[in-house]
Amino acid sequence: xxxxxxxxxxxxxxxxxxxxxxxxxxxxxxxxxxxxxxxxxxxxxxxxxxxxxxxxxxxxxxxxxxxxxxxxxxxxxxxxxxxxxxxxxxxxxxxxxxxxxxxxxxxxxxxxxxxxxxxxxxxxxxxxxxxxxxxxxxxxxxxxxxxxxxxxxxxxxxxxxxxxxxxxxxxxxxxxxxxxxxxxxxxxxxx
Length: 191
Fold this sequence. Notes:
This is TetR family transcriptional regulator. InterPro entries: Homeodomain-like_sf, HTH_TetR, Tet_transcr_reg_TetR-rel_C_sf, TetR_C. One of its GO terms (molecular function) is DNA binding. It is a single chain. By secondary structure, the chain is mainly alpha-helical. The chain has 2 domains: about 1-55, Arc Repressor Mutant, subunit A (Orthogonal Bundle), CATH 1.10.10.60; about 65-190, Tetracycline Repressor, domain 2, CATH 1.10.357. The chain is about 75% helix and about 0% strand. Helix 1 (about 10-25) crosses helix 4 (about 55-75) and helix 5 (about 85-95) runs antiparallel to helix 9. The longest helix is centred in the middle third of the chain and has 23 residues, at about 55-75. Residues about 1-5 have low confidence and may be disordered.
């Protein structure tokens, strides 16, 4: 059983996954080492191998954790009273991450892009958080009465991911903020 300070075995695993998620985003999958993950988590390096037999197992755990975080975020957004308000709240998540995106890119997009170069299953698994967002956005557009809901969801996500790419490339957080404002007007025009 894990105590609330995270000293138990489950706490170590969670700290390793959180540290790995941060390092994978900041350094990339290839550059981040298991020793760096252990150090960042405050865990002896040998413990990494207790919880994760390979680096790929740790990457899978990061993907699963991010997917879980996306589902939690989307669940919280359901409290908004209208689909348009929920969609706007979704895209504002990128504005909240704007400084991080300017430095390292979108945590979802960069991981999916990096793992896409592989053909071992991790490439498809990295799309899980993105797929969850697309499916949820599609449902919101469907609630707005749109028959082209999937296309609109793709357009919305492409808009924020394109802005995230440009924000990162130019190290300019205002790009994503400006694009989100544009997308908000677009959402208003659809409802």
